[in-house]
Amino acid sequence: MWIVYSIGTAVLLALSALFAKCGVKRAHPTVVTSLRTLVIAIFAWVVFFTSGSSGFSAISGTSFLYIALTGAAFAAAMICYHSALKKGDLVRVSALEKAASFLMMLIAVVLYNRTSLLYIRIIAMALLAVGIILMLTKKSRSGSGTVILYGMLYAVAAVAAHVLDSTGINVRNSALSLALILTVVLIVSLVSSFVCGLSGGTGRLPMSELMFTLLSGFSAGLAWLGYRYAMSNGDTSTVTVIISMSFAVSVGLASLFLKEKVSWKTVCGMLLIAVGILMYEFMI
Question: pLDDT digit string (tens) for 130-183?
Fold first, then answer.
């Protein structure tokens, strides 16, 4: 059953990306980030309060500080992600999402000195790098440079959030930890929306985009629930690999519903990324 949940999570994440792309056509990225985060945060708080557990009193001041820093980094990541979606197509952004995986592999070697089976790590990173480059060489009418810039900023901010989370947050209840982080993300994105609104950067959100944005948040919330079940009941490496393949599902959905062209370079890039992830998860 956990495999079904893992596959379902990957599909839901891909749907969330598709809906986010549809919801950010005219809306400002900070507004989309706020709305998506609000929906996902509701999921996290409902799970926390209905689980019958507590944990506020056990959170140290240091953990609260790292929660705030993690939330701020994650907010920056999501704003950059939605900015990339607004400027470019979903295929390119799906490739750039994997840049975060590449950076995490690199950080594991450089900062955490994880050099066991180093040659496999290097091959896996090389496969990811080549795969990402191949997917990014897809012809696009949108501004490639801007999309890549936002995508790389997303990757850096997402990795920073992950490092901060794993380094300084000591909260046993994962639902509480996520709920608190998402609350910080919501606050940061709302403030950003207000500032952008004052400067004339945000406009009125069309009803269709509002619905797509809410669907994106709902899909992401369901994906998180599926991820929790799969990780608690299945093999961690297998679950991670299956969910990591959501980027390929996103490409398929982009081709099917958004009519984005998928070239042979894109397919080859996807295969290289998939092989790199498989090597990293099962051979190290």
Answer: 999 999 986 655 567 899 999 999 999 999 999 999 888 877 788 899 999 999
SS (H, E, C) the chain: CHHHHHHHHHHHHHHHHHHHHHHCCCCCHHHHHHHHHHHHHHHHHHHHHHCCCCCHHHCCHHHHHHHHHHHHHHHHHHHHHHHHHHHCCHHHHHHHHHHHHHHHHHHHHHCCCCCCCHHHHHHHHHHHHHHHHHHHCCCCCCCHHHHHHHHHHHHHHHHHHHHHHHHHCCCCCHHHHHHHHHHHHHHHHHHHHHHHHHCCCCCCCCHHHHHHHHHHHHHHHHHHHHHHHHHHHCCHHHHHHHHHCHHHHHHHHHHHHCCCCCCHHHHHHHHHHHHHHHHHHHHC
**Rounded CA gap, 44 and 182, in Å?**
8
The C-alpha atoms of residue 276 and residue 47 are separated, in whole angstroms, by 34
Residue 86 CB neighbours (<10 A): 22
End-to-end CA distance of the chain: 26
Kindly report, residue by residue over 169-221, the tens digit of the pLDDT: 877 788 899 999 999 999 999 999 999 876 667 767 789 999 999 999 999 99
Which pLDDT value is given to residue 174?
83
Give the count of domains, the chain.
Answer: 1
CB atoms within 10 A of CB 142: 11
Parent domain of 103: 2-283
Is there a contact between 10 and 189 (Cβ–Cβ < 8 Å)?
Answer: no
